[in-house]
Every structure is written in C-alpha cells, then in structure tokens.
Amino acid sequence: MLDRRLHAYRTDLAEAGLEGRVEATHFVAGTPAKVAIPVAGLRPAPDAAKGIDTEVLLGESVAVFDRADGWCWVKAASDGYVGYLPEAALSDALIEPTHIVTVQRTFLYLEPELRKPYKAILSIGSLVQVVGEAEARGNHYAMLADGTAIFAKHVQPIGAGDGGDYVDVASRFLETPYLWGGRSGLGIDCSGLVQLAMLMTGRSAPRDTDMQSATLGEPIDRSELRRGDLVFWKGHVAVLEDPETIIHANGHTMTVARENLEDAIKRIGWLYEQPTGYRRPFI
Fold first, then answer.
1. Taking CA 256 as the corner, what is the angle to CA 255 and CA 261, rounded to the nearest 5 degrees?
2. Which residue of 29, 34, 93, 116 is most buried, as measured by CB atoms within 10 A?
C-alpha cells in the first residue's frame, strides 16, 4: 500500500509516475504552479473544515493534478507531500524566486517605507523574486516586481546560507506558537521545526516524524548524543542543542521551547512512552 501522503492517487486520477503501480481511470503529469499567498494549509481533502497536514509557503512550487470546486489537488515540490489547497492560493505565473526570507517573520510593504501600510506578513523560508533595491531614510529594501518591498536584511540569495548550523536556525523559533501541521514562522509543529530548520541550511528532510525517524541519518545510542542529533518518540521529535538540552515544538507549552532532555523524557512518558530512538542526521 503506497503512502498517500507522498503518492497522488485516487480511483479516478493519479500522478503519471504511478502508472502500473495503482489503478486509476486517468494518469496525469501535473502542471506546475507557485504558492501565491504567505502560508497555505495543505489538507487531506478539499474541505476547509479538515485539519491541515502541512503547509506550503509563498513562492514554493507544486504540481497540480486536478482543479475542482475552488480546490486544487497538488504535490509539493519541496518534500513531495500530497494534498488539497484552495485554488486562490496558487498562481500559474512561474516567476523564479531569487531570494529567501531568513527571519522568523517579516513585513511585505506596499512601498519601500516602514511607515507605510504593509501588504502581508511573510514567514521564514518564503521565496521571492528581487528585481531591485531602494532606500528610504537610511533603510535599505529589496524590491519585488509588483513594487512591494521587504527590509533588505531580512532576505538573502537562495543558497547563501547552505551548510550552516541548523540547530542555530531551530533556536530562532523559540516561543513560536505550536500549530499542528504548521510549517512556518507563524506556527509550527515538531517535525515542521526539524524540516524547516534544515531547509534553511540547504538540507532536505521529510515532513512527518515517522518519515524522519526512518530515513534521516543513522541511529545512535543515547550515550553518543551531541548537538544536532534528534530524539524521537512515537509521534514526536526534538532537536539536541547539547547532550542534555532539547529544542522542540510541543503541545505542553504550545510553543517551541527549550527543555532538559531527562525532564522531557519523564514528562512525555505518560503519553508517548519512552523515546523510540536517537538519530544523527548528518554523519
């Protein structure tokens, strides 16, 4: 049985790469589109009452397999996650991004002036195309094609931060609200924190905890723990800041928080039992 989170198939329609592996009336390659709003929730069904599985961010790419009743059935290019987005969240204009937002949240201004109204709030990881620069009262702005502006120090060229310390990025999320399925600087869950922190340093990671615990790096013993390792429970993951301290998005504080590892193991045990394993994602 293929994982429906990562394989787009229904009885009436499936992605072309699954032909011969699943039964469907039609197979399609999917048409490319870009996320056109700051944050869009990806749902398991075309129903706004359904909880989100994950999120996609401004400028990220998706393949669209179907459009119906204001919804699109898509597959995210960044991690292969499949689900439904409102059609209004997408654009067929395939503008290639040049820069990525590097701070937790930033304002997209209607013009390059911090005293003027803003158009939107963008999350870390959002992708934009910078076409120029502007200065107002000593502040420098990155200009987008539609005339909107972002504080220049809040973006950098895509790839410029590759190879950095993903734990340092994870620590920037401290006190960010916990959100089930969240994957942005506005709200995030435990596996979203791991994935987005790694993304910001040029590394890829699957979306959900079970995927991460099965594929990221190699298993290690608790006695070997060091900064950057991961601790897994059934349905939960935390990042090691050092051998005794974790950073994790959690439903206990409803934030991204720093916690002593042993204290967390004792506290979490009643709900998730003992850790299922420890992994070193980068050997």
1. 120
2. 34
